[in-house]
Design goal:
eight-stranded parallel β-sheet, 2 helices, mainly beta, BacA/B, 171 residues, Polymer-forming cytoskeletal protein
Length: 171
């Protein structure tokens, strides 16, 4: 049959590249504050010119350079590159937006909208930074304290708050 179409891997006795420096097990598992380092996170990169539809699960970090349409996605970190588009519903810890998000976005931590970023739809976030040129269109709600999300039925039937004025007698 001849040769295999796949190159043979190097043998363990002769390393092809120098070994990476050893890291302590505790440092590899978690960074300070209990968070895993970015390089240790399960990352999904949707490259330029690639379109993905459906459900994405178990990705801790999502980098969108192409187009993603997802019904519900939960991740630790979202990054939408210039020219990248995310359509659908997503809940993340932190988001960096240089492309477009069209849908519902919940960010429990920091949301950064870069100069080329466009946010369309409904957004909830704890902290927001918008660079000059960044665009937000739709409903924006800031998350304060440890409040759980309000049910939709309460948003439409919230009682009106009356303003009372105190009068002081003039002398």
């Amino acid at each position: 049959m001849g040769r295999s179409p796949f190159p043979t891997p190097p043998s363990p006795a002769t390393p092809a590249a120098p070994a990476a420096p050893a890291r302590p097990a505790a440092a590899a598992a978690a960074a300070p504050g209990g968070r895993r380092e970015t390089s240790d996170r399960r990352t999904l990169v949707v490259g330029r010119g690639i379109s993905v539809q459906g459900s994405i699960q178990d990705a801790e970090r999502l980098v969108v350079e192409g187009t993603v349409e997802a019904s519900l996605l939960q991740a630790a970190e979202l990054s939408v590159a210039p020219g990248g588009v995310f359509r659908g519903e997503i809940e993340v810890e932190d988001a960096d937006l240089a492309g477009t998000i069209d849908g519902t976005l919940t960010v429990r931590g920091n949301l950064t909208v870069r100069a080329t970023g466009k946010l369309i739809g409904k957004t909830r976030c704890r902290r927001l930074q918008v660079e000059d040129g960044g665009q937000i269109t739709g409903h924006l709600e800031m998350i304060t304290g440890d409040m759980p999300p309000r049910p939709a039925s309460l948003e439409t039937s919230a009682p009106a708050v009356e303003k009372s004025e105190e009068t002081t007698p003039s002398v």
